[in-house]
Amino acid sequence: MTNTEPEARNPKPLARRVPILFSVLALLASLAVPSFAVFTKIGMAGLPFLKIGVGRCAGMGGAFVAVADDATAAFWNPAGLALLQKRSAVVNHIDWVADINHEYLSIVMPTKVGNFGVSVTALSLGGFEETTVDTFQGTGRTFTGSDLAAGVSYARMFTDKLCFGLTAKVVSEQVWDVGAAGAAFDFGVHYNTGWRNLRLAMAIVNFGPDLKYSGGLLDFTHEPGWSWPWSREPIPGTYLTETFPLPVTFRFGVAYDFFRNDNSYLTAAADLNHFNDVNEKVNVGFEYNHRPVSLRAGYILNTDFNYARDVGWTTGLSAGAGFRFTPVAGLGLNFDYNYRDLGRLGGSHRVTLSLDF
């Protein structure tokens, strides 16, 4: 993990600072007023794997857009990559629902002109047995499905407190020989107020053109029949598919250090997430670090109370822990385990290994 900007040596009087924090929290709360929605947007976007959170912040309820201080910032807020002062790499494995496995890799390289990064997300859906109307117990053939996203990121500090970042990526989904592919972009801004490391940030991710499925299984042959004395040849055709949008997400977040010194810190973070295909969610999390150990806890609140009640209020609880090694001078190795409650779908185990050098 990297060190963030320390508290200013000559802070302004506390009386002037506290209203700033309360104003930010009041704004976040007003934007996230729980609702009893009548209209649901569920299922209106494709490639949902792009919304599965990665990294140590999974134990913080996914509240990370304003923290964004490791290589997983390429996923949460590309502006955070500018905060890294060392070369960093992260490998993340998620044991998702059923037999679905999610893998993530990110590498960041600081340079004099800004920080560059590459990231890859891969999801495997496992194997499926083919069934048809006539052979509903299975034809004996199997097929698989997979998702992939690969991106290149760039981030730069514009001042000692403000940074900006962007990611360009290709995304694809393949089920048997039917698939869709396209491009998407992420944009982010990160601002450190300088008081108790209070940070404000926002990001728009998965912004791109609509996609459309195509593939050999959409082809068919129409038998027009015949009547004497004429006969007709079979007519080839292809099923038309509708376009669908990517899961565009707008994130606004705040992070605050209750205390921070050379050996320990306690950070609180809160994010408001606006999706184009599901209800808004508020992510809240805490991280306590006393080197070399880190402890995390968080919660994801769905702002539709009816939905939250139906799936169970414990859905969205998360927790995690980490340990940092220093095998040799200048080399840092972090191992993190995080758990998230998925309600009726069970729990999700996540393991993260990160390296800075």
From TrEMBL:
Keywords: Membrane, Transmembrane, Transmembrane helix
Pfam families noted in UniProt: UPF0164
InterPro entries: UPF0164 (IPR005362)
SUPFAM superfamilies in the cross-refs: Porins
Chain ranges passing through the membrane: 20-39
Signal peptide: none
Protein family (similarity comment): Belongs to the UPF0164 family.
Listed NCBIfam families: PorV_fam (NF033709)
Name by which UniProt lists this protein: PorV/PorQ family protein
Phylogenetic classification of the source organism: Bacteria, Bacteria division WOR-3
